[in-house]
Amino acid sequence: MPDGLTGIGAKPTPFAGGCEIPFRFITITASEKVRAMDQVVARSGNGSIPANPLLSAPILPTLLRLTAPNLAAMLVTALVAIFETVYVGILGTTQLAAIALVFPLVMLMQMLSAGAMGGGVSSAISRALGAGDSERAAALAVHALAIGTLAGVGFSLLFFLFGRSILSALGGSGPVLDQAVLYASVGLTGAIVIWLLNTLASIVRGTGNMRVPSLTLLAASAVQIVLGGTLGLGLGPFPRFGLIGIASGYVVGFTLGAAFLFWFLRSGRARITLAFDAALNRAMFFDILKVGALAAFSPLQSVLTVLILTKLVASFGTEVLAGYGIGARLEFLLVPIVFAVGVASVPMVGMAIGAGNVARARQVAWTAGGAATIAVGMIGLFVAAIPDLWSGLFTADPTVRAAANLYLRWVGPVFGTFGLGLALYFASQGSGKILGPVLAASVRLIVIGLGGWWLASIAAPTWMIFALVSLSMVAYGAATTAAVYFTSWEDRA
Fold it and tell me: What is the pLDDT of residue 235?
């Protein structure tokens, strides 16, 4: 294979009705050629040098090694959310209720960009690398950035134009709605930087590099904690900006992180390099979107589930809504822990599928599911036993704390099933077979939707709403497990 431009990037092709968009992807280096040839040799059984540790090393140690940097970054992300809730608690109960109203939408951006579309990006790139096609992987990275940019701009415009209407439809009114709009005016209209950071991080993760994205998220989180707290509470010489200041720390941190990852991928230090002088290709978009777009329905359904619950709980008053927000936030903070395991499994599964080793891919999936179940399940049981350790961090109001504790006692014991389902969802992205786990999220939504409608019709007490949440998590975990077990990954190879 000669050095230089080859493959689909050699000649611009028309896109979107004949429009040619130039870009260039990286020339294959000598070392990358050697790695690709090693893969072919290893897969044919004619060589003894392993192509990639993700394809040959013991599964659990490799998974844990990849998980470790992700987990460090995700734990700091969780700490950011805790600090943010502490800041808001200092501002007042109205602000706590407002942040509970906005939080599902912020998490929607995170889950869509990092978990759903990000998984599609990592899956496509890792499958290409597993098959020894570095050229295709580099081209896919540019297409991924185009998708992330367009999606980010779209969501930023959506929240800028209709943010107040959306929050009002979720049950916000009066001072709570006003405060939620203040946060959303910065935090949600800045969706573009959320998409850019998570898309770029997913590109790097698809190559098997977890360290650089994790360190970037750590740095962005540090900026968010310091700047958000300073501006939100008015520390030092700064005035108190309230929720606008807290949201500003979030957006600035993500902007700096996205800028660094873009530089990293342009600098030639990554396994693949972003460059922009060949034509975009529809097949490349399809390779990402056939996983990412379908996977996006899962977080959409998850957030819709939370929005239905938020609407139900809002009818019990501001104090109960604030307490529910504190309890439900722990559920969302457990997502990053599962995310750390899940995104580590995506390149392992994807490269195994690309190399034709389906048995190894499935072993990775079940190993990741088991690890997530144990980690999240233990946290859930602990908090359910001593809920004041969590709720007491955020409020001294007895009514608010009682609502939060009630939620944790009902839902905490089944967090493990939620972790199992979510980890298998990520692993399925690596395989390219994501329909089953997406439909499992539909099962949870149906349980909440129909159950919530019935409970509202009989004016059920709060504990019954929280019991319904517990039931829906069990249903989600069981449905996802069944979907992965009965879905064949063979034809993908």
Answer: 86
What pTM was computed for the model? 0.75
Structure tokens at 171: 């049950």
Residue 370, CB-side half-sphere exposure with 13 Å CA sphere: 10
- Pair 235, 173: CB distance under 8 Å: no
The DSSP annotation for 302-347 comes to HHHHHHHHHHHHHTT-HHHHHHHHHHHHHHHHHHHHHHHHHHHHHH
Phi, psi of 15, deg, nearest 5: -140, 140
Stretches where the chain sits below pLDDT 70 are: 1-51, 278, 491-493
Q: How do the domains of the chain map onto residue ranges?
A: 7-492
Closest among 387, 346, 268 to 29, alpha carbons compared: 268
pLDDT tens for each residue of 387-441: 888 888 777 788 888 888 999 999 999 999 999 999 999 999 999 899 999 999 9
Burial class of residue 427 in the structure, from the number of CB atoms within 10 Å of its CB (0-12 exposed, 13-18 middle, 19+ buried) = buried
At 135 the pLDDT is: 87
218, with CB counted inside 10 A (0-12, 13-18, 19+), is middle
Cα separation, 255 vs 270, in Å, equals: 20
Tokens matching residue 159: 């929240």
d(CA 143, CA 281): 8
CA distance 52 to 127: 13
